[in-house]
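This section describes the prediction task in plain terms. A model, or a person checking by hand, is given the sequence of a single protein chain and must write out its three-dimensional structure as a string of tokens. No templates, partner chains or ligands are provided. The sample shown here is typical of the held-out split.
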Amino acid sequence: MPAFVSIFSLLILIQYVSLGGAADVKLKTKPDRGAPQNKLLGTFVAPDTKLEAVFAWVQKHGGKGLDNIRIALFDKAGHSVRGLAATRDLAAHSEVLSIPESVILKLDHPSVRDSPFQKVDVELGGLLLKLPLYLAAERRKLLNGKSSFWAPWIESLPTPAEFASFHPHYAKPGVMSDFAALPLTEKLGHDIESAEKKWEENKQQWISLAQSCDAEGLTFEDFKWACTIVWTRSYSGLSPGNNVRGGLVPISDLGNHAASPSLDWSHRLSGNPPTWSVLASRDIKKGEELTESYGDKNNEVLLWTYGFAMAGNPVSTPQLSKDECGKLQAAMNSKISDDRPQAQILRSLQALSREQCGIVGQQSKTSFLGAYL
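The expected answer:
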């Protein structure tokens, strides 16, 4: 997915939906009759209205290859995961998708370049906050009933409520206490505290800047949401500098992560007018999933950055000490019911704890909720 394949990294959103759990309510599309049923292939689903709007918006502005792809469901370790599938056989090295620069959100896009947020030089965890603040203000405009060039894409992105269902950066106070001995829990706590502190230190200026561009009432929730979108969906190489997290590419950011991806995305724009090209890294069959690489990241980093852990991840996580695993024993063995607050986040932490303590053969209900965005 998209992804920040360079920083924490992403791609995507692509919402991984856990079967049988509370997340099922997010899956409102039904499989098409006659769709591919091979487990290696996806099951095409009926179009999603918001995603259809994004496809139409990108095509209107010059996007190409959109008829090569379609939303589908894929079986991953017993979970039904939403992703992109090929609508026809695609030859290796052929262009699958082309996204025009005009719909790629990056620092030198005219709408960002000319915004009042260009004067922001504050960073959060190595991320320059110009782009997240601009995105937060554009979403705030939409929530206030106003218009935005980016509306079709923004309205298709995960909401704060959806992030809170799976991404540990949205864990509420006390939710992760059973996993206090897990190193990731401490990192997440630091991240959450740092974001809140950064907002408190700068909110007066940022709210004023938002008001100057017709985005009244900017909130911490807007800010946190935008930072999460940039962290989980941006691609490297689209903007100069080491702290800008690249850019955000609609539709391309719907690709799921795979250790051996079927797609190869551009690190630079090319052509006239400039476009972002996605190529087939090998021959791809109709119905096969179109995947990207978020980089060689272990499950601790994937969960920290994107909010999901990958079953069978070939990149190993650091193993914990006997003492740390002892403190996690009760949490690793506990049953997490669907009605427990933020159950999916707890299941992900539980699965990570088991992996880092070398416990194999115990399958937890870890979903791949993550990018769908």
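For orientation: The CA atoms of residues 41 and 287 lie 5 Å apart.
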